[in-house]
Design a protein that fits this description.
Elements (H helix, E strand, L loop, with lengths): L4 E2 L5 H11 L8 H6 L1 H4 L2 E5 L2 E8 L2 E4 L8 H15 L4 E5 L1 H10 L4 E5 L5 E5 H6 L6 H11 L4 E5 L5 H14 L6 H15 L7 E7 L2 E10 L4 E9 L6 H13 L5 E3 L7 H9 L4 E3 L2 E5 L2
Parallel strand pairs: 11-12
Antiparallel strand pairs: 1-2, 2-3, 3-4, 5-14, 6-14, 7-12, 7-13, 8-9, 9-10, 10-11
Helix pairs in contact: 8-9
Pfam families: LPG_synthase_C
Protein name: Phosphatidylglycerol lysyltransferase C-terminal domain-containing protein
InterPro entries: Acyl_CoA_acyltransferase, LPG_synthase_C, UCP018688
Length: 296
């Protein structure tokens, strides 16, 4: 029987090594991302045949990642199928990439059904485009940034662990500003923002802070995702400050992402406003994700 356990900061090095072996471009394939959401999605992990497997809980059912890393992937997945049969539960693999479907078709043809959901696709941009905002379609972004910079009374700096309190106060301001629209999704977002701020150094996350008139108006947090892609996990700004969002977006990329060709800004979760905002930056590609349900 495969043994799953809660994620611990002590697991970070081993998990990260397995993830780097697969070099995946989807945002879920990050130790920090799974650690941050572990309370909300009941994330657990297992080591099987020298592979990493994540388990997620949705209500009373579970789904899993495909075995990750250079270990015996087929042996690990066979063990997962045996576990599912023993528990009389359907085996569901989530956050699959196209390369995973190709591998499954080679080793388990006709044994599963595939579904996909556009809401889960990651938005990936070139670092060059987010840095320069060049081109007619991004003219509006450049104008917002120009207005933000107009009085020269602004500053961007690296986030340090001791800045957590100041960033928490910005989160309080954000919650107050959104009080009429507050919902469970926002509460979850607030929760993972706070965990990231409390564990910035332990999770080896980068952070950046943007000031206007001496006041913190935005911050962003991210990390390298794979060999050519950087992922932005968190971006928070005061919507009342014109240009704060495009400005923190650009400044964070300029200061943290220049060694990577691409920037992953994660999914839109089906939120229409978020989808419009992410599309407005002209993504280079969308990372498609799939779900495979194995027949019992």
């Amino acid at each position: 029987m495969i043994e799953f356990k809660s994620l611990s900061l002590r697991d970070r090095e081993w998990v990260t090594q397995r993830l780097l072996e697969d070099d995946r471009q989807a945002c879920e394939y990050s130790f920090a991302n799974n650690f941050l959401w572990s309370d909300i999605y009941g994330v657990k992990m297992a080591k099987e045949q020298e592979c990493l497997i994540f388990q997620f809980q949705h209500e009373d059912s579970y789904y899993y990642t495909i075995p990750i890393g250079n270990g015996n992937r087929k042996g690990a997945l066979d063990a997962m199928l045996a576990m599912a049969q023993e528990n009389r539960q359907e085996l569901v693999l989530g956050t699959l990439l196209q390369s995973d479907l190709n591998w499954l078709e080679q080793h388990y043809p006709g044994q599963y059904a595939v579904e996909t959901n556009r809401d889960d696709y990651d938005y990936v941009y070139t670092t060059e485009k987010l840095s320069t905002l060049s081109g007619r379609k991004l003219h509006g972004k450049r104008n917002h940034i120009a207005r933000f910079k107009d009085d020269h009374n602004w500053m961007y700096r690296e986030m340090m662990p001791e800045d957590a309190g100041e960033c928490m106060r910005l989160l309080d301001d954000w919650k107050e500003a959104e009080s009429e629209n507050w919902n469970d999704e926002m509460e979850n977002e607030l929760h993972i923002n706070r965990i990231a701020l409390r564990n910035l150094a332990e999770l080896v996350l980068d952070g950046g802070m943007l000031y206007k008139g001496g006041r913190l108006v935005a911050f962003s947090i991210g990390e390298p995702l794979n060999s050519n892609t950087y992922v932005v996990h968190i971006e928070k700004a005061l919507a009342s400050v014109q240009g704060a969002y495009p400005m923190i977006n650009q400044q964070f990329v300029l200061h943290n992402c220049q060694d990577y060709a691409y920037v992953n800004r994660e999914e839109d979760t089906g939120d229409e406003g978020l989808r419009k905002a992410k599309l407005s930056y002209q993504p280079e590609l969308l990372v498609e994700k799939f779900e495979a349900r194995f027949h019992l």
